Amino acid sequence: MLLTQVSVDQTSIQAENRPGEPQEMSFIDHLEALRWHIIRAAIAVLVFTLGAFLAKDFLFHDLILGPSRPDFWTYRMFCEFGKLLNAPDLCVDPIKFDIQNRQMSGQLTMHISSSFIVGLAMGFPYTFWELWRFVKPGLYPHEQANSRGAVFFVSILFILGLLFGYYIAAPLSINFLASYQLDPSIENQIDLQSYLSTLTTMSLSCAFVFELPMIVFFLAKAGLITPEVMRLYRKHAIVVILVVAAIITPPDVSSQLIVTIPILLLYEVSINIARIVRRNSLQKLNADLVANNGQS
Predict the structure, then answer these.
(1) Contact yes or no for 114/64 (Cβ under 8 A)
(2) Any residues with CB less than 8 A from the CB of 214 and at least 6 apart, and which?
(3) Tens of pLDDT along 250-294?
(4) What 8-state DSSP symbol labels residue 165?
(5) Structural domain tally of the chain?
(6) Residues 263, 237 contacting (CB under 8 angstroms)
(7) How far apart are CA 233 and CA 229, in angstroms?
């Protein structure tokens, strides 16, 4: 009896130590793995932040203060479009406002904070990739197969949203708000922090809002949402989208419409994504049923 027990114990030990077999990780091991993923992501963000900090002239003169000048790319494109339509009003006049710093350490603080924001934005794709590397081993093989390309599409949508916010939503909002006057005698002297807050809020908000199709994709894969439900609550979704657009944009109608239109388009695209996900799931289910019936 004792020999049998010893034999069983040795067999189980060998099975646990067999090379190539996946080993169970303890909670501490998971925390350790997560810690290193976070460290690598933080290093990537720090590298981009340092690069942005060193490129001070490009960061402020070209990137941050670009939408405050009439020679910005967006304004030039609108002017060219206005010439084609014989609508000279689309050309942007020099924006009448001054950006000021009112604190002793304000410019240094703004240099550091803006560099960090650029570092976060540029490091987001790599940060998401590190997060995905941590989550992926815990998924079943079919879940990993269904999520193939997640990092790529999340990164692409984030970049598209960031570009839309920076080149479309933010400059038009800045131009409207800076040009709005109650009386010609009142001059617009904008605080640097207020200007940067408007620019970053518009850009980053659009970047995250553009992730709507991927969110719907994963919810549809989990069976938590269907295209019928999204169509049924389309009117409610429009109200929610209008509220979100009002929150992330300055209080002017033009900015809200500029942000609302692409979100509505993304919602319609998400309905089609949910429909495709359900169709593929039904096809796979039918194929499995046919295969099981053939084996029986």
Answers:
(1) yes
(2) 150, 153, 154, 157
(3) 666 777 787 888 889 999 999 999 998 888 877 777 776 767 776
(4) I
(5) 1
(6) no
(7) 6
